Amino acid sequence: MKTLNNLLIVTLIFLALGSCEVQEGRNLNGADTTSISEDVSRGELGDAIAGILSDMRDRIETQVDATSVLGREYWRIQSSDPRWTGDLLTGLLDDNTFYTTAPYSARYATVKDINLVLEGLVNSTADFTEAEKAAARGLVNTLKAHELLMVLNAQYQNGIRIEVSDPDNLGSFVSYSEALSSLSSILSDASSDLLNAGASFPFPIPSGFEDFNTPSTFDEFNKALAARIAVYQGNYTEALALLSESFLDLGGDLNSGAYFTFSLTGADLSNQLFFAQNSTIANARIAHPTFITDAEAGDTRLNKAPLRDAPLTADGLTGENDVFIYQSNVDPVGIIRNEELILLYAEANHINDPTEAVNAINIIRNAAGLPNYSGGTAPADLVNEILQQRRYSLFAEGGHRWIDVRRFDRLGDLPLDRPGDGTAEQFPIPQNENQ
Hints:
Serine Threonine Protein Phosphatase 5, Tetratricopeptide repeat
């Protein structure tokens, strides 16, 4: 895959002041933020959207690591920072440290980028057609919903700010359920724009979105994100309708989907979720032993956690298997894949059409080298099986296990490895936020 252009619009941080303030930086490779917001040109629009897509990758590794550790998918070992095996395994989370503040700030920084583009489209004197403006709005609002969902997945019942377009007058926090509804509405409005956007985008689309490089196909990505939210809401009827308009393909490649891409050129980013096998105590990701022991015999997804040459021991934890999802530091990272959509489809069917749910489950099981599902078909039985398949199919991809056990009120099922360890259902609101 080609790499994303590292065209950053802004570098934003949340300052530890009396209220949460957004400080604007400068565009490193193009027009400044004032030029973008006051009268975005064609060239600036392309650069700005490339910058948004680049910024979306910032601190992804921190959020994936932190949520995966909370979900006992793996242990993050770093000899220079005991918080990975301290705070995150005891469940006593700090509201003013990197695993809380860095992903939070990075995601809202991208939202700020997006809001600048939306403002610029309103003010632009360039010769954009209405269809071209709709294409840009549809794309960036879809990405905005993704970024805010990332924040919400971490903050959960704390809720989040949805309205942050005016840094001097930030919107209030809304509840988890209200936030999900708001994100659904953002995606619905974005979908309407995409469907009124004509045949092409007025700017390049990076290779990680090569299957979604027209407004109509990008709408399939939009619908996939909306289906994820509908499942989180327990709105299974709506989820099925959205999945029918997404890129779900029951007979297709499980890895088809949208991806972040990376490179080692220029100022671009490498994939920080890659560690070589047999990494040392200085920096390692070690699969939780139960990922191995809880697996069915013959499950080929265990190849995501190959056996180390020797066990690694740190802070009272000993593991024998590395996390090895990515083979190099330029491998792409999935945003949402067909494999997840099939599992969302299974869940959306598990109450009203258990036969269809089992059919979808069997697609996933068979792809992993497992025989057809032979268990019960009552809703509780199917939930158990779906969560098991999600655990192995989405291992180490984005904290899915933590999110899943939380939404089914099963946090207490997570293993505790040492005396004094515990779980957490959400990250604290960053200390510098003033509600």
